[in-house]
Specification:
380 residues; alpha/beta; Rossmann fold; 7-stranded mixed β-sheet; 14 helices; 36% helix
Length: 380
């Protein structure tokens, strides 16, 4: 089998690492617009299975023969490209998953469901960490209850040695981070879909030492299709991002000032600059420092089982793989997507069309695959 990876950034390293362990995969093609990034990832793995090609993600003509050759394609490029890439996967007859993160993009992908089903391909958006792994874990927890009242998903990628003032380190794209903070979040409240403002709903929660008291707040994209799937079946369902205390207050202030406004410009020495572009560049510079990362995940489902009130809480605390130079965020984002794509290619997911992962991905088998990759959820 041939697999195609779009993008040679951080997450591609986790994807390649995982695919190299599958003897059924004979070729891994990686495309990126940067020849330097391609040479770096190729040199990192030094495998004869890897083939690199310098292409942009919007070069659909150049990508077409690669999609035709591949049995499965995974998008690790910004979600802006995913609708066109989904259409290309359908036309060339290959399975497709992406790391997603944008509700409007995913909605457009689902409009292609009938075309994908007719082409006998599986398309699964939003397959990273959150959205992604947490949707499957949440569905698995809900399966253990006869009645489901509340579902809470809490996730954060954090530095182990935080630096002030934001106490945060970039562990994925700054562009994606800002979008999570400024775009609306979708939740279930009283059984109905509701849109809420991101960076609101601030709460505190406790994790084991050395983390202690942390904060969490609404961010966009984390629930993916869960509200649609469980509307009128679950009373309340929401997703919040975990950060060290104080982060939300500072970040929200900068957003309110207008630092993330895509349309805003300012003049400096006769030159015009886009405000958001400058802010992203500043964050890229400031939030890159030496510190190992950790990913904290807690999924709680409350309801009733066998006539009694029951709460199921599944928790994972995941660290970097120092031996293989994979960060915690690489592991928890890339591995779930790699698992799902391989399930499609190996026909372990038999449904075809544009699929909701909480319905299509078998929860128990998914957890087994995570454990093979040393990602463990414990009931607490």
């Amino acid at each position: 089998m041939t697999v195609l990876i779009l993008g040679a950034g951080r997450m591609a390293y986790g994807l390649v690492f995982d695919f190299l362990k599958n003897d059924s995969i004979s070729k891994i093609i990686i495309i990126d617009q940067s020849q330097e990034a391609l040479k770096e990832i190729s040199g990192f793995f030094k495998s004869g299975k890897i083939e690199i090609k310098q292409l942009k993600a919007d070069d659909l003509y150049g990508l077409k023969p690669l999609f035709k050759e591949a049995k499965g394609v995974i998008s690790a490029v910004p979600y802006d490209y995913n609708v066109d890439l989904t259409e290309l996967a359908i036309s060339e007859g290959c399975h497709f998953v992406d790391l997603g993160g944008n509700n409007a993009v995913v909605e457009k992908q689902f409009r292609l469901a009938e075309k994908a089903k007719a082409a006998a391909v599986g398309i699964i958006p939003d397959c990273g960490l959150a959205p992604g792994m947490t949707s499957v874990i949440a569905a698995h927890a809900m399966d253990q209850l006869a009645r489901i009242d509340d579902v809470k998903i809490r996730v954060g990628g954090l530095p182990l040695s935080p630096q002030t003032p934001l106490n945060y380190k970039l562990v994925f794209s700054v562009h994606g981070l800002i979008n999570e903070y400024i775009e609306p979040a979708i939740i279930l409240e009283d059984g109905h879909i509701k849109t809420v403002e991101s960076m609101t709903g601030l709460e505190t929660l406790e994790f084991p030492s050395p983390f202690g008291t942390l904060e969490a707040f609404y961010t966009s994209g984390g629930t993916s299709t869960l509200p649609l799937t469980f509307e009128n079946k679950v009373i309340n369902l929401d997703y919040k991002t975990i950060r060290y205390p104080g982060h939300a207050h500072l970040m929200k202030a900068m957003i309110d000032i207008g630092f993330t406004d895509k349309k805003a410009e300012f003049d400096y020495n006769g030159n015009k600059y886009n405000t958001r572009d400058v802010f992203e560049a500043m964050l890229n510079s400031t939030l890159q420092y030496e510190s190992e990362d950790v990913v904290l995940i807690r999924v709680t489902a409350t309801g009733q089982k066998e006539g009694k009130e029951k709460t199921i809480t599944l928790q994972a605390i995941e660290y970097a793989d120092k031996k293989n130079n994979l960060t915690a965020m690489m592991r928890t984002t890339a591995f779930p997507a790699a698992i799902i794509l391989q399930m499609l290619m190996e026909n372990k997911i038999k449904d075809r069309g544009v699929l909701r992962q909480e319905q299509a991905v078998p929860g128990f088998d998914f957890i087994v695959e995570l454990e093979k990759r040393r990602i463990f959820f414990n009931e607490v």
